[in-house]
Amino acid sequence: MNAGERQAMRVCAAGDLVDGGAGVRRAARYLDGDAVVFFVRYDGHVYGYLNRCAHVPMELDWVEGQFFESSGLYLMCATHGAIYAPDTGRCVGGPCRGARLRRIEVEERDTPEGRAVFWLPDGDLQPAPADEQRC
Ligand code: FES
């Protein structure tokens, strides 16, 4: 692999993510500490973020995988109610307005097993080792 090439990690089948529906969580390493990332679908596209609120570094979902508020239009932090635009990760309401979730790069592509979602990790945010992937 070239230095600039990144190892894509398969996250889930594309059909597992529905618009405004439950997200998929994956264990990660961020700056050498344990972390969680999540993936959601919004307006037909898949987005991924570090599961860490921009207000206080807490995970957004109290109920695992529930990142959208009731309208399905915004991601919401369950702790103090910050709401984020799903396509940019920008906080548009709540105590950290204007701040952003840490975005991760994702893509959907066809595989022999069907269409799937992949995470393209970058430098300081990487998938946890395979034996720690349950979260
Ligand atoms: S920790 Fe998310 S809004 Fe306060």
UniProtKB/TrEMBL annotation:
Record's keyword annotation contains Iron-sulfur: yes
Superkingdom as given in the UniProt entry: Bacteria
Classification via Pfam families: Rieske
InterPro entries associated with the record: Rieske_2Fe-2S, Rieske_2Fe-2S_sf
Coiled-coil region list: none
Any one GO molecular-function label of the UniProt entry: metal ion binding
Record-linked SUPFAM superfamilies: ISP domain
The keyword Metal-binding is annotated on this UniProt entry: yes
Keywords, alphabetical: 2Fe-2S, Iron, Iron-sulfur, Metal-binding
Residue ranges constituting the Rieske domain according to the UniProt record: 9-110
PANTHER family: PTHR40261, RIESKE DOMAIN-CONTAINING PROTEIN
Protein name: Rieske (2Fe-2S) protein
